[in-house]
Design a protein that fits this description.
Elements (H helix, E strand, L loop, with lengths): L2 H10 L14 H14 L1 H6 L1 E5 L3 E6 L9 E6 L19 E3 L2 E3 L7 H16 L8 E6 L8 H11 L6 E4 L3 E3 L10 E8 L1 E10 L3 E2 L8 H14 L8 H10 L8 H5 L5 H10 L2 H4 L5 E8 L6 E2 L2 E10 L5 H12 L5 E6 L12 H13 L4 E7 L15 E3 L4 E2 L1 H6 L6 E3 H16 L3
Parallel strand pairs: 3-6, 3-7, 7-17, 8-18, 9-16
Antiparallel strand pairs: 1-2, 2-6, 4-5, 5-19, 8-9, 10-14, 10-15, 11-13, 12-14
């Protein structure tokens, strides 16, 4: 096996599962991961300035040739989400076994694949005595999957040192195959913004009592009615500027009848949004704030009427909407004053990073060089990353994972059978190496 691939396998095997409950986090496992990282990448730890952030996150500085040039920040995270023991994994989720030309395991795509690829690229350049044109910071978080405070703490340390990055690059996007119906080439999608992540709780209360004497309109019935109303009253569709630019760029590769529509997407917004809404949940999420009822609770026993029923609603807020406007939409859709709507977690959409800009052009050129069949394009990310905290110190925050991913692979993130192709992962290493060499 390739020595660099073995490094990825070793680190995937260490189950760095994070949790919102710190008592459930195995600190020894995270310490073991950091020790293994230092063993696998000795030059990186010897020649870079290494700072621990909180408990298990890292901030590393690689000094560049020009100390006056604004630095770049490359991000990744070492924590992973838990594994559902009932999920039908083909191979052990923390086995990091190689089958059919791929490494299988939790974290191969999200996000140890990127973390280890970045480290391999830096280690190779250090071995060649290369020095980047400007400072490079590596920010590796340990609480990304639980929206922890580590990334904000890293931003605080950089701010204290007066670091104002030229650009920040985190996970997100991919060289996405089967990204859009009818578009043959893969898309090198670079996230220029993120949807906001917000969670609301709906609560209905009542008398409760014995299940043998139910009355109409109890808490569970009202919550059920609210859930149905939410599904029948989705957010209106809109076409943010980055999404219009995406369609402009893929227009030459779209089916012939759709090319004029995509090329003029910003002028033909109603037609484009209708087409996307009809194309399935992934395209539809590009043009609207989404709502998903993810948790329901009611009575603690099967023969007891609930005195309190709840529903958790996870919102992914599109650029142009806000937490306040989205919460008001939910209240209007529920249309029941007896149900309280409370914001449990609030996250606004991230600012939109520039596309007509040398930093974005560098990323696009690196994609074109390493993945010549791909169409580089901006897009709005559906999921949240630690990079949203870096918008406080940088206006150019981008999200791109330089691995080829099929639709099936993208669906495996946070699910089962997560895996990355060996050749695809090595191509990602080359992508990071070229990016670092080509920094102006």
């Amino acid at each position: 096996m390739d020595a660099d691939v073995e490094k990825l396998c070793r680190l995937v095997r260490i189950p760095t599962v994070s949790s919102t409950d710190e008592a459930e986090v195995d600190a020894e496992v995270f310490e073991r991961f950091l020790a293994a990282l230092a063993e696998e990448f000795p030059l990186l730890h010897e020649r870079l300035e290494v700072t621990r952030v909180r408990d298990h996150s890292l901030l590393l500085r690689w000094a560049g040739r020009d100390p006056d040039a604004a630095p770049v920040v490359l991000m990744a995270h070492l924590d992973v989400v838990p594994v559902d023991p009932t999920a039908p994994w083909q191979h052990p989720p923390f086995g990091a076994e190689v089958h059919d030309g791929a490494v299988w395991g939790r974290g191969t795509l999200d996000d140890k694949g990127s973390l280890v690829a970045t480290c391999v690229a830096v280690e190779r350049l250090l071995a060649a005595d290369a020095v980047p044109a400007r400072d490079v910071w590596l920010s590796f978080g340990a609480r990304e999957e639980v929206s922890g405070e580590d990334a904000a703490a890293a931003v605080g340390l950089l701010r204290e040192r007066g670091v104002a990055p030229w650009f920040v690059l985190d996970e997100g996007g991919a060289v996405a195959h089967q990204a859009f119906p009818g578009v043959a080439p893969p898309l090198g999608v670079v996230g220029v913004s993120e949807k906001g992540t917000t969670t609301l709780e709906l609560v209905a209360e009542g008398r409760g009592g014995h299940s043998s004497t139910p009355s109409r309109g109890g808490p569970t019935a009202r919550i059920a009615r609210a859930v149905v109303r939410l599904e029948s009253r989705p957010f209106p569709a809109r076409l943010p500027a980055p999404t219009a630019e995406l369609f402009r760029r893929i227009a030459p590769h779209a089916p012939l009848p759709l090319r004029p529509l995509f090329a003029a997407a910003s002028r033909l917004e109603p037609l484009v949004t209708r087409a996307l809404l009809a194309a399935g949940p992934e395209p539809a999420a590009l043009v609207r704030t989404t709502m998903a009822v993810t948790q329901l609770s009611g009575s603690p026993a099967h023969n007891v009427l609930a005195s309190r029923a709840t529903a958790a609603v996870n919102l992914r807020i599109l650029v142009g909407d806000t937490v306040a406007s989205a919460t008001e939409h939910v209240r209007r859709a529920v249309a029941d004053d007896s149900i309280t709507v409370t914001v449990l977690e609030a996250g606004e959409p991230s600012p939109v990073s520039p596309v007509d800009d040398p930093a974005f052009e560098l990323l696009a050129a690196t994609i074109a060089a390493e993945f010549p069949d791909a169409v580089p394009t901006p897009y709005v990310m559906m999921a949240a990353t630690d990079s949203r905290f870096f918008t406080a110190i940088c206006e150019r925050v981008y999200r791109f994972t330089p691995f080829r991913m099929t639709k099936e692979q993208r669906e495996s993130i946070h699910s089962y059978d997560e895996h990355v192709g060996v050749a695809d992962w090595l191509a990602g290493v080359a992508w990071y190496e070229r990016l670092l060499r080509d920094l102006p």
